[in-house]
Amino acid sequence: MHRYFFDLEAGPWDARDDVGVVLADAGAAHAEAIQGLHSCAGATLPLGAGPDLAMTVRDETGQTVLRISLSAARAAVAARGGGRPMQG
């Protein structure tokens, strides 16, 4: 078992994990990072955080194990047309 730390970045805003989570291996840390980033994507972030989210996972030594990111692009949705994004 190893302790992993999950640091979140949203534009100029960031939050460093000082507690961490004990997990079996890097694969479990990857799954935890994806779940955490998914949860953050639906949360209200600080003003000016921007549309891009990233999570860096560190191990007990401080080494980066992995980094995942999510970028959201705004799309206008047509009132008619089956919810397809509008071109333009």
From TrEMBL:
Taxonomic lineage from the root: Bacteria, Pseudomonadati, Pseudomonadota, Alphaproteobacteria, Hyphomicrobiales
Protein name, as recorded: DUF6894 domain-containing protein
Pfam family, one: DUF6894
Entries under InterPro entries matching the protein: DUF6894
Domain DUF6894: 3-71
